[in-house]
Amino acid sequence: MLGGNCAVLNEMSTTASSHDRETIARINYSSPSATTYENNTDCIQDGEYVTGSIVEYACSEHYNLKGSRRRICIGNGRWSRGNALCEPECGRKVPQGLSAGGKPSAIGKWPWVAAIYDVKNELLVCGGALIREQWVLTAAHCLAIDGIARPRDRKDFRVYLGKHYRNDSQDDGLVQKREVSTVILHEGFNRYNYDSDIALLQLTEPVEFTNRVELICLPKHELRSLSEANLEDGVRGW
């Protein structure tokens, strides 16, 4: 959500209470891209909102509010400045001790890890990392046609999020299954030396964020090298 015309409330759940000439509306956004509004829009439409109205923005669970939490309908009939944005949480794992030597992790400890399966052969081909609601980052060699630096058909793959056990029969109701709409290999991928061995999978529909499914945190744009971030991590997979 960017900016806000508070007289337009489609695709949102709201509750409002009136006291004299002040209305307090609490707006919950299930996704940061659910609805976009232009800045400096009229906050008085059909008499629904009046000068002095206050709108408080809140995000759904697993999202963090960035920007102004409150906007006021000022004397010129427009909302006060200040944008609000609901951004998905990232990198939040279940607190556990370190696991070394290939020991099993606790269920849900790594909520951004995706399992990529070969549908026809019913085999786990690779792991991946959830970077947006509908995008998984993985290795190009996992998705390429054997001996050719071109992607296999998207229908060859299925992606699981929130998965712990390799055997599907042990999955519970918190595992999310998604089909693939697009397979993108890095244009510089070299099948001989694995240079630029990186790829993206676009899912047919966004995932639902839960304690078992969240994004991995990506480096900030201004970061010149990963060594500057002073990060520690390890290898995840089955």
TrEMBL record:
Domain of life: Eukaryota
Coiled coil regions, renumbered to chain: none
PROSITE patterns: SUSHI, TRYPSIN_DOM, TRYPSIN_HIS
Domain Sushi: 27-88
Record-level GO BP terms: proteolysis
Family matches, as Pfam families: Sushi, Trypsin
UniProt cross-references to InterPro entries, sorted A to Z: Peptidase_S1_PA (IPR009003), Peptidase_S1_PA_chymotrypsin (IPR043504), Peptidase_S1A (IPR001314), Sushi/SCR/CCP_sf (IPR035976), Sushi_SCR_CCP_dom (IPR000436), Trypsin_dom (IPR001254), TRYPSIN_HIS (IPR018114)
Protein name stated in the entry: Limulus clotting factor C
